[in-house]
């Protein structure tokens, strides 16, 4: 089964409204041009409406960077899955390493958020990845599979079938240090194997993106790996020419 490549641009906490409008317009045209792959953007909550307006009627997908682990109620400052779906977001990041490590989100909280996203009809983009210390201690597979298992236990194979995964080694995010195509492929293959142990249907179905200092110069080589189904792009998503080149590289691979 072929899994169509997917490129998601994570804008993080960047840009004002004019930037969001310009980046989203550029990404909308790009999504139209790259018809062999899928393109999406993940703005901050306050820029979702601006991005959705620019994406309206185009192939561009718009998602959020986080969601509440509660459904609704007295949780000041939080944004629920239902609210995101209601305004037209289709995807949401779950368990980005900046949230796991800077804000202390546990595997359990991540699993709850994943469950909430599914319940609201959103596609969760579950981020998995090890720190440099964990890699150097030979714990990469154990950490990544533990993070995956926490969600599998809660939502099962049926839940994972509706998700996208993103392998993002923490040491490669925003550092300029990219995993080599071989290093990334090895972890992706391991994760795909684990999906197969849960359900034989999952490996052919679930896309596993790579994230961590992807740029125009290394995208093609990464996307050519058998188990890399696209990218989760941070810094380079803020530079329209870089993001365009990355999407075109994914589009070449189909
Ligand atoms: C990310 O934010 O998920 C990311 C991969 O960032 P960068 O591309 O800047 O490393």
Structure in words:
Among the domains are: 1-65; 139-231, Alpha-Beta Barrel (TIM Barrel). The protein is 48% helix and 14% strand. It is built from 11 helices and 8 strands. An 8-stranded parallel β-barrel has the order 1-2-3-4-5-6-7-8, surrounded by 7 helices. Helix 2 (48-55) links the parallel strand 2 and strand 3. Helix 1 (17-33) runs parallel beside helix 11 (240-253) and helix 7 crosses helix 8 (181-198). The structure holds phosphoenolpyruvate. Phosphoenolpyruvate (PEP) binds at residues 10, 12, 168, 173-174, 211-214, 232-236.
| Integer-rounded radius of gyration | 17 Å
Total helical segments: 11
Strand content: 5-15%
Structural class: alpha/beta
Each distinct ligand: phosphoenolpyruvate
Supply the CATH class of the domain at 139-231.
Answer: Alpha Beta
The helical percent reads 40-55%
- Model regions low in confidence, pLDDT < 50 over at least 5 residues: none
What global shape is seen?
A: globular
Q: How would you name the CATH homologous superfamily of the domain at 139-231? A: Aldolase class I
End-to-end gap: 13 Å
CATH architecture of the domain at 139-231: Alpha-Beta Barrel
- Sketch the major β-sheet: 8 strands, parallel, barrel
Q: Report the CATH topology name of the domain at 139-231.
A: TIM Barrel
């Amino acid at each position: 089964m072929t899994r169509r490549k997917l490129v998601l641009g994570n804008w993080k906490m960047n840009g004002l409204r004019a930037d969001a409008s310009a980046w989203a317009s550029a990404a909308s045209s790009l999504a139209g041009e790259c018809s062999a792959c899928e393109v999406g953007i993940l703005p901050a909550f306050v820029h979702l409406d601006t991005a959705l307006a620019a994406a309206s009627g185009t192939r561009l997908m718009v998602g959020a960077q986080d969601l509440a682990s509660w459904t609704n109620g007295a949780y000041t400052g939080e944004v629920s899955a239902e609210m995101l779906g209601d305004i037209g977001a289709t995807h949401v990041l779950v368990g980005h390493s900046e949230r796991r490590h800077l804000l202390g989100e546990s595997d359990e909280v991540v699993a709850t958020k994943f469950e909430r996203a599914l319940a609201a009809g959103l596609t969760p983009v579950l981020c998995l990845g090890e720190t440099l210390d964990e890699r150097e201690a030979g714990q990469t597979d154990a950490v990544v599979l533990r993070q995956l298992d926490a969600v599998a236990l809660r939502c099962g194979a049926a839940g994972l079938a509706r998700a996208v995964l993103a392998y993002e080694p923490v040491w490669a995010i925003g550092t300029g240090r990219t995993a080599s195509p071989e290093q990334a492929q090895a972890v992706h293959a391991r994760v795909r194997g684990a999906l197969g142990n849960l359900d034989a249907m999952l490996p052919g179905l679930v896309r596993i993106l790579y994230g961590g200092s992807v740029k125009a110069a290394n995208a093609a080589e990464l996307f050519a790996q058998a188990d890399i189904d696209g990218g989760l792009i941070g810094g380079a998503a803020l530079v329209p020419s870089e993001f365009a080149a990355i999407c075109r590289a994914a589009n070449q691979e189909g």
